[in-house]
Amino acid sequence: MRVRFAPSPTGALHIGGARTALYNWLMARGNGGTFVLRIEDTDRERSTPENVEQILDSLRWLELDWDEGPISQFERAERHSEVLQRLLDEGKAYRTTATADDVKAYKAEHGNDRGFRGQDEGEGAVRLRVPDEGETAWDDVIRGRTAFQHVHLDDPVIARADGSVLYNFAVAIDDLDAGITDVVRGEDHISNTPKQLLVYEALGETAPRFAHLPLLHGPDGKKLSKRHGAASVQELRDAGYLPEAIRNYIALLGWGAADDQTVLSTDELIAQFDIAKVQKNPAQFDEKKLRWLNGLYVRSMPVPELTERVEEFTGRQGLAEGVEISQEKFATLAEFWPLAGFIYDGPLDDPAAREKWLGADQRANLAVSRERLAALDSFSAEQIDATLREQVESSGAKPKDIFQPLRVAVAGTAVSPGVFESLAVLGREESLRRIDGALAGGT
Fold first, then answer.
1. CATH class for the region spanning 351-441
2. 0.85 exceeded by the pTM?
C-alpha cells in the first residue's frame, strides 16, 4: 500500500487536512505501507517557503512522519510536459483557442447538459478528449459506486496555452509516478476524480482506489470555519491541546472503533483503523468535546511528563509542584498558567474576588487562619487541612468562609488549585507574607 497526503501550501494546515493526513498515515502504518508527502505548490504566489514550512511543522507536531518526500509538484514540471506532449502526439489531447464564451455558445446549441467538444486548432490551451459514449466510474471505498456520464463532461483543460499543466493533470501524473495505490481525500475532490481517471485511461494505466472523506461541520451543522473556534492545527497547538489527544479526536470524526471506544492510543488507532468503516455523512467537529478528551489525557499523564509539556508550552521552568497540585483542574496546557501562575508570579489582581471574600468578617476569619498556620509544626498540605478544618468546626462558620479568603489572599482570585496544596507549595514564609498583605490591604 502506498498512500499520500498532498496539501497546497496556501496557508495553515486546517483540521480537515490534518484528518486527511492522519487517515493516510494510519493506513500506511497499519498495513506496512508507505506514506508519501507531496506539496502541491504550483500556485507560486501563495506557495511560499513560509507556508510550506508551516504545514511541515504542523505535521511534525502531530507526529505524522512521512516515508518519502516532501515532493514538490512544481519541480516536476518537466515530467508533466513530457506526458502532455505524448497525449498530444497520440491524438488523445488537442490544442484549442476556445474561450468560456465559446463553451457557452456550444452548450446553447447542443444543450446545457451536453459536455463541450472542441476541434484541434494547433494552438491554445490543451484539452483532453472525452469519449461521447459511456461513463467514467469508480467504486469509492466510502461512498460506493460513483459514475459520471461522458455526455455531460466537458473535454477538460489539462494545460494552459503556455504549456503549464493544470491541477487534475499534474495530480494524476504525480500519483502514477509515485505508485500511489489509494487516494484518500475530502469529498470536495469528487468532481476532480473523473478528470483524473480520464488521464489514467488515456495513458493506459490502472488508477488507484479512491476514498472520499465526508466534510467537517461545526456543532451548528455548517461547514467548519473560524466562527466555530480553532480551525487550524496551529491554533489548536497555541490553545494548549496535546497532539495525541488531537489525533485521537479527529480520527473519530467519521470513523469509530468497533466497541465505540472513545479514548484510543495511537497504537490502538493504527491497529483498528479501517478506511472502509468511515461514514459518508458529514462529521461534526466540536472543540468542547476535544477539550474534554484533552482533559482526560492531561489527567492521566505522569506528572513529570505533564510538567515537561507545560514547561515547554509556557517557556518557564521549575513548575513540577504547581503542575502536580493543578493536574485535576486544567484541561489544556494554556489553562495551567491562569490557574496556577500566582504561585510563581505573585497574586493576581481580581477586585471582584477581593470585594466578595476580603470584607471585614472574612478578614477576621483570615486573621485566625494566619495564627493557626503560623503555629504549625509541619507546613504540609495534610497539617494545613487539619488545622483549617478544625477552625471551621470550632467557629461554626461555613467552609467557604474560611477557605475562600485564604485562597484570595494567596492567589489574588477565587479560582486556584486546592487551597491546602497551594499553601504548602508556597511554603510558610511566602504564605504568611501574602496573608499579611491581604489583611493590611483591607484596613
1. mainly alpha
2. yes
